[in-house]
Structures are given as C-alpha cells and as structure tokens.
Amino acid sequence: MTTDLIRYDVLTRDALRGVLRQVLADAAANGLPGEHHFYITFLSTAEGVKISPRLLSQYPQEMTIILQHQFWDLVVTDDRFEVGLSFGGIPERLVVPFSAISRFFDPSVQFGLQFETAADAAAAEEAPAEETAPAAEAADDEPSKPSEGAEVVRLDRFRKK
C-alpha cells in the first residue's frame, strides 16, 4: 500500500476546522442568523481547554454546549474560541481549542461535522494496520461490463451555439 506523503486526511481536517472557525467568527461579529444554532461537543480534558472545576466534575470526558440564545462574549482566534454561558444559573467562561472539538452540528439546516481528536489519532496509531491487497491483484482478468442504465452525456449538448 502506498504511503500518503501529502497527508490528505490532515489537509481535509484542517479545512473543515476552518469552516467551523469561520462560522463561529461570523456569529461573534454578527450574531446567529435566522434559526441557526450550534451544538459543539469537545473533550473536556484536552490540552488548552479551560472550564471550571465544577463543570469538569460534571463532564469529566466530554461536554456538549449549545450556542443559541443565551451566550455572550464569543471570541474566535486562529486556534480556539471563548464563550460565556450559564450553567444552572451560574455564569461560566469556556475556552475551547478547535483541536479539542469532536463534533459540530447546526440542527436548523441539518449540517454536521465530526472530527478526529488527538486522543482518537493516538488510538488509531496504536491499532494494528490492516493489510490490504493491491488493486491490481484484486481485479478480475475479465474486462468490466458497463453498468445498465449508464449513459454518456456529451457536454456539447449544453453549449450555446
């Protein structure tokens, strides 16, 4: 199997975190538009996460917050966001690095992202790698038959004359 020296997985993850960063930055600058609201799940003990000891005792592994009506002072930087929320009537300030986020969901438009966290990546590296046969060995000697219902569409049909 060929090694991915470009690291498409890392590039994709960083691009998707960029989407999350931009969405939060827009919300910080302009508020939440329409019915949009966000569910953000993060690892509560990840490096850089700052939550109160009270919240950490309630959510020792992971925590989901909702940014909808009652949040304040949302600040977004390149590597994290900070937000004020109330838990049981007690105001709290949370600092969450983007690398600690495992899931993001906007239920108003059914848009979600799931991220591999540092803990997930470490577990994946420790797991034994699966052996896969090269594609050339797995292919049949018989030429493939075209699938029924497939149609080649000439792009010239759609060009203006």
Description:
With 161 residues, this protein is of the alpha+beta class. It has a domain at 8-119: SH3 type barrels (Roll). It is built from four helices and seven strands; from the N terminus they run αβαββββββαα. The chain has helices at residues 8-30, 53-58, 118-126, 135-138, and strands at residues 38-43, 62-67, 71-76, 80-87, 90-97, 101-106, 111-114. The strands form two sheets. A four-stranded antiparallel sheet has the order 2-1-6-7, with no helix packed on it. The longest helix is centred in the first third of the chain and has 23 residues, at 8-30.
List the keywords.
161 residues; single chain; SH3 type barrels; alpha+beta; 26% helix; 4-stranded antiparallel β-sheet; 3-stranded antiparallel β-sheet; 4 helices
CATH superfamily of the domain at 8-119: SspB-like
Poorly predicted residue ranges: 129-155
State the CATH architecture of the domain at 8-119.
Roll
The total count of strands amounts to 7
CATH topology of the domain at 8-119: SH3 type barrels
Strand content: 25-35%
Evaluate the radius of gyration.
22 Å
By helix and strand content, what is the structural category?
A: alpha+beta
State the CATH class of the domain at 8-119: Mainly Beta
Helix content: 25-40%
Order of strands, widest sheet: 2-1-6-7
User: Count of helical segments?
Assistant: 4
Question: What's the N-to-C terminus distance?
Answer: 48 Å
Order of helices and strands: HEHEEEEEEHH
Mean pLDDT: 83
Outline: globular
How would a crystallographer describe the biggest sheet? 4 strands, antiparallel
